[in-house]
């Protein structure tokens, strides 16, 4: 008995006039399909947990069937319905434009220098259970090249195939006159597509990146879970960020940072973070994070694991790979502890709650954010640090966070796990004591404290960057205004600034009746007397007002994890087992 050929969904995206910042998309459906035919555009993109309403950039939607126009009805904020007059369902076309001029890894961008798009921003999908095959043709501006992790077909031009819609939108595309670099690891090709790096020396990055990837692979072992991996890297001044994908990663940073000794480790950590996600998030994930519901928020209490643990490992991998010295990694962990301690929200919101509330809080910060929220990136990474050290101590070195990830990978692999799987894996490795850690650090708001530092040859010290200049504490987070004044960005809960009545958005223009410039603030604070009132003059909503601020004693602005002088050999060995390098 003959079988019915599967339906085919063919996307074509072109950029004939990139100066208009509009991609033109044409979709051709061939094969059976129930009518009316409903189409939708995602309202969010996986990896960035905020409803961003991509449909706002869609215009000029029209359709044809058998050479005749088809009525297109918009039936929702990101949904369209097509109904051919004759009710048939064979071959027809849908076309529209997408405005693309947001320079980030989660969005799409097109100008006369390059084109970049995430599928979730630009590709409508059919709301149907009918199976279909996907083909994508990219028609770049003349003279441009095209790069993506999608498999290229044998057809002429830039034609690619995707197993399903999830794969299509999880494979961003870069178009332009970019630079290509590549290397092999375990027999698998890894590519770097570099835009904006024409005159940049990449020798250090090309030397260090394979070593970091090897260190990440060593955590899980086995065969690499992909046949080719692509880094799409954009060099943009004063920009930074990354977004993970199943067989690729999008990364943006300032090329000048590659030559900055203070910034270069952060660039390596960015690469390490996005690459580690190919296991932790893209494959090892909660059950509802793939296949996706693209029309609604997808909630989980586990972003502290998905993002926080990944951030922890990003820095751990730098030490284990030998690309960054242990003291730089320890400095990063210590500074993270200081920042968490200075954030009142860590006593208000648990890291599990922060994960759940990401859709309404993390990506929408305001002046009150530090007071009521905690970052699941920051605290999640520190919880990972504390659990890793605690597991190693409790098991006498037989278990670690590596073991937990390996346990999850062996049990669930690429199939998704229930919400309680991480807790169970932690307890399986560490025993019943893990319940206490979870209760305090994950589901509660207890301070992150440990007496284990000496067990790893370390001591946590709280010091000053400049002991001769220690600014008094006000609880005000400030930034430079356009007029070189001090603009108050946030007022920390329970601080002198809150007691004084100051508020986010205030422009601080005078200190005790003397004009205040942004560059003078730290000097003023260093010379004032804690407990002695200061008259603060501000503009609020264009009105001149004065308040009395009573600064408190300075708080150490430099936390450090330093080697103990009398570390035991056991402590040194535990440090080496943890970071993969000798104790400094």
Automatic annotation (TrEMBL):
Pfam families per record: Peptidase_M61, Peptidase_M61_N
Residue ranges with Basic and acidic residues bias: 562-575
InterPro entries registered for this protein in UniProt: PDZ_sf (IPR036034), Peptidase_M4/M1_CTD_sf (IPR027268), Peptidase_M61 (IPR024191), Peptidase_M61_catalytic (IPR007963), Peptidase_M61_N (IPR040756)
Domain Peptidase M61 N-terminal, first and last residues per copy: 10-176
Domain of life: Bacteria
UniProt protein name: PDZ domain-containing protein
Chain spans, region Disordered: 562-584
Residue ranges occupied by any Peptidase M61 catalytic domain in the UniProt entry: 268-383
């Amino acid at each position: 008995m003959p079988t019915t050929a599967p339906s085919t969904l063919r996307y074509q995206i072109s950029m004939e006039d990139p100066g208009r910042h509009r991609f033109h998309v044409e979709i051709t459906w061939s094969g059976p399909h129930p009518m009316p035919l409903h189409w939708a555009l995602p309202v969010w993109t996986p990896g960035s947990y905020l409803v961003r309403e991509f449909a706002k950039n869609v215009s000029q939607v029209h359709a044809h069937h058998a050479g005749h126009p088809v009525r297109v009805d918009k039936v929702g904020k990101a949904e369209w319905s097509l109904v051919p007059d004759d009710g048939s369902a064979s071959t027809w076309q849908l076309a529209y434009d997408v405005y693309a001029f947001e320079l980030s890894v989660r969005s799409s961008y097109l100008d006369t220098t390059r084109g970049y798009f995430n599928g979730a921003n630009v590709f409508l999908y059919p709301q149907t259970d009918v199976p279909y095959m996907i083909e994508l043709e990219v028609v770049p501006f003349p003279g441009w090249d095209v790069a993506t992790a999608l498999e290229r077909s044998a057809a002429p031009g830039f034609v690619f195939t995707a197993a399903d819609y999830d794969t299509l939108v999880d494979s961003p595309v870069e178009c332009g006159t970019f630079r290509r670099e590549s290397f092999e690891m375990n027999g698998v090709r890894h590519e770097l597509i570099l835009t904006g790096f024409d005159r940049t020396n990449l020798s250090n990055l090309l030397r260090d990146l394979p070593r970091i990837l090897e260190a990440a692979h060593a955590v899980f072992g086995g065969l690499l879970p992909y046949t080719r991996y692509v880094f799409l890297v954009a060099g943009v001044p004063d920009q930074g960020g990354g977004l993970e994908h199943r067989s690729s990663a999008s990364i943006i940073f300032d090329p000048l940072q590659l030559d900055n000794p203070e910034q270069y480790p952060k660039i390596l950590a960015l690469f390490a973070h996005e690459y580690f996600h190919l296991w932790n998030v893209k494959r090892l994930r909660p059950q509802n994070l793939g296949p996706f519901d693209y029309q609604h928020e997808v909630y989980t209490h586990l972003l502290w694991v998905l993002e926080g643990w990944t951030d922890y490992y990003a820095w751990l991998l730098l030490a284990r790979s030998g690309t960054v010295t242990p003291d730089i990694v320890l400095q990063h962990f210590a500074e993270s502890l200081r920042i968490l301690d200075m954030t009142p929200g860590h006593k208000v919101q648990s890291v599990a709650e922060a994960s759940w509330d990401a859709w309404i809080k993390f990506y929408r910060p305001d002046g009150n954010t530090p007071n009521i929220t905690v970052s699941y990136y920051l605290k999640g990474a520190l919880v990972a640090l504390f659990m890793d050290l605690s597991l190693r101590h409790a098991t006498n070195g037989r278990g670690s966070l590596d073991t937990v990830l390996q346990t999850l990978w062996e049990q669930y692999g690429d199939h998704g796990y229930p919400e309680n799987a991480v807790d169970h894996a932690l307890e399986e490795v560490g025993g019943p004591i893990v319940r206490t850690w979870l209760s305090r650090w994950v589901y509660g708001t207890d301070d992150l404290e440990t007496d284990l530092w000496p067990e790893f040859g370390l001591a946590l010290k709280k010091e000053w960057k400049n002991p001769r200049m220690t600014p008094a504490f006000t609880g005000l987070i400030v930034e430079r205004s356009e007029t070189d004044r001090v603009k108050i960005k946030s007022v920390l809960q329970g601080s002198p600034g809150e007691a004084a009545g100051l508020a986010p958005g205030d422009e601080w223009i005078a200190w005790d009746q003397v004009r205040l410039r942004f560059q003078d603030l730290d000097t003023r604070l260093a010379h004032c007397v804690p407990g002695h009132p200061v008259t603060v003059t501000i503009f609020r909503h264009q009105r001149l007002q004065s308040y009395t601020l009573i600064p408190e004693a300075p708080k150490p602005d430099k936390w450090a994890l330093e080697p103990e002088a009398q570390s035991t050999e056991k402590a040194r060995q535990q440090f080496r087992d943890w970071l993969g390098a000798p104790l400094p």
